[in-house]
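Proteins fold reproducibly. Take a sample protein:
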Amino acid sequence: MSSPSGRSKAPRAAAMDTQAPGAASPGTGKAPRRDPLDTRAGIAARIVLLVAYPLLAHVASLREDGRWSALALASLALLMLLGPVLRLRPWALLLLVATCGGLYWLAGSDYVWVLLLLLPVAFTGLVAWGFARTLGHGRVPLITRIVSALHARAGLPMTAALTRYGRGLTLAWALLLGALTAINLGLALFASPQWLVAIGSPPSLAISHAQWSWAANIACWGLIGVFCLIEYGIRQRRFPQQPYRHVGDFVRQMAQLGAPFWRDLLR
């Protein structure tokens, strides 16, 4: 025969197991703290900083002003450290202050331009590698992981056709970003006359920082945007049953996958 205390423990345990996410924890009366990056303010901050960098870099190039270059690089540093900064991690706050101080010191030198010119090369190269490395044997292609997560949230199955499409799209992104990396590297070299002299090319082939920026910060990002829109249209025609209704809903659901998912995606 069960004791009265045994009967009272079971319902209590069941209640704890079925407690809704975000509800107050028993005994504490406090809801689990939400990751600042997953809040509306955190998402908005990421979008603003993501848009701010190429715009600030473009303004810096048009003005030939190292101070604007330093400001552009500082906005990128804040974007990369945004999560721990919002969580008020001391090391992140100190690193951000040190980075901004270093950029302020470099603002009047040519080194700040070297950083600005090489950043598009590093960014597209790293992301291209992130896509390409998931195509190896025994790995799940990056796009397939994202599609699987979106479908799992909506309770939709992953078909074989979707899996093949995810792999093909991952390869397409790797090739596109790899090509942009090569283009950005060439642009960076031609925007640095001292490099042209070092490799024996005439300085007359040099391009201005403004010309570099129109290509690296505007045209390249525009090409990526056009690729996204074309791919979205193809995907909607090939797979009309999707867990999202339109582009805005797709972006919202991508954001709702949460910071932990995106952190683990490229590991």
The CA atoms of residues 53 and 72 lie 5 Å apart.
